[in-house]
Amino acid sequence: MKTTETNTAKKNYNFTSIRVKDKTKEEVNKFLEKVNKAEDCGKVTFDTLVSFFLEKITTDDIQALQTKTITWSHEEKRLRKLWEKKKGKVSDNKWKEMLFLGQLGEFIEANSRLKVARSA
Hints:
The protein is 56% helix and 0% strand. By secondary structure, the chain is an all-alpha fold. The termini are far apart.
C-alpha cells in the first residue's frame, strides 16, 4: 500500500478575548470590512490590526493616549507635587484651603494638562 506523506504546518494559536465597547467593536468591524474588500491580499484580522498599530505607535501617541485618561484626581496629585517642588511642602489642610479659596487658580491654569475655564 502506497502512502503519501503530507507536510502541513500545524497552527497552534492561543486566542483570548479583549473587552471593548459595542460601538468600538462596530467601528473596528466596519474598518476591517473596508480593508478586506481587496481580493488580491490576505484577510486582515483584528489581531493583525492591533499588532500593526502596536508596532507603529510612537512616544507622542502614547502620551496622547495617556492624556485622554487624565481626571482631576490624577491632575491634583501631579499639580501638588509640582507646587511643592517649586514652593515647598504644604499640609493637606493648607492645600485644600488654597484650592477651595481659589488661590491656586493661576498656578493650575499655567500648569494643568486639563483645560481650565477661568471664571469671571
